[in-house]
Amino acid sequence: MKLKRVNSVSKNKENSNIFPNPNYRPDQWREIIDEKIVTNNLDTQSKVDTIDRIKETGIPVIDKSNALMNKINNLINEAKHTAEQKSQEAEELRKKAEQQKQLAEEMKKKAEEQEQLAQELNKRITTDELTGCFNLIHYEVLKNHWDRQRNNDNKFGLIFIDINDLKVVNDNFGHSAGDKLITETVNYLKTKFREADSIIRIGGDELIIFCKNENNNNDFKKNLEEKMADIWQKASPIQIVFADGLTNEIDMSFAYGVAVFDTKEGDKEVEDVQKRADKLMYKKKKEMKKEKAKAHQIPTNQTIANQTEVEI
């Protein structure tokens, strides 16, 4: 039991022996038992005055009709009920928030799956099945992109490549050997160029390497030409293994032409650069034919039907 007393000036000194301090009257003690207010021997106040007094002073007063206690209990019950309602509302909001979070995570996961699927589909569409490099569809996308740009002078270059002797290899060793010649040539070129450059197989034995001049190098074309001359010079023969276990070597050989976008050359779109690179490639190819024919001591005017061994 806890006792709480209210400060009040005593009008008489009876019971002073019981209460040493004469300023306290025994009828003004309050007993707080089991958290209930028990009041004794004080004048009754109005309900409003009683509640206000409790709010202001914290001192309970007598209420013989129990109206005060009932009011307090009602207020407590209302507060508890409101708290329970708020708690239920908060729990419902928490559940809804959790559901929304779960839904958002599911939508994010689906979006990521769709993005991955789109990337895989795009890769499949734009990748050459034999070599794993880009294909003609990717090249068309590149052309459309750069054709929409302005002032492309010296911004990119094209290397047009034609693999030599593919028909000879197919006729003499089979198409699997021809496929290996194409694949090994592409793999060799991949080791010599940056990821930013696009190696594209536009069909058969023809390749295009699309190179961006990322550093705006004024010697961009010269650097590409020197790079390709070094790559061409260092190309190594390819080992072909046949079903019976026998092996044979095939020279990795190709002709190439290098062109960089230049309005002074009349370039208006990527196709113009490609045509100039293609023209330079065929010029290189003729030079290689003459050198090879001379090495085999075959007249250069001999018909194509009789130069199977040196066909390029």
Structure notes:
- This protein is an alpha+beta fold.
- It has two domains: 2-65, no CATH class; 136-310, 2-Layer Sandwich (Alpha-Beta Plaits).
- It contains seven helices and nine strands, in the order E-E-E-H-H-H-E-H-H-E-E-H-E-E-E-H.
- The strands form three sheets. It has a four-stranded antiparallel β-sheet, with helices on both faces.
- Strand 5 (198-203) and strand 6 form a beta hairpin.
- Helix 4 packs across helix 5.
- It starts with a strand and ends in a 17-residue tail after the last helix.
- The model is unreliable at 1-48 and 302-312 (pLDDT under 50).
Short description:
By secondary structure, the protein is α+β, with helices and mostly antiparallel strands. Helix content is 47%, strand content 15%. Strands 5-6-4-9 form a 4-stranded antiparallel beta sheet, sandwiched between helices. Strands 1-2-3 form a 3-stranded antiparallel beta sheet, with no helix packed on it. Strands 7-8 form a two-stranded antiparallel sheet.
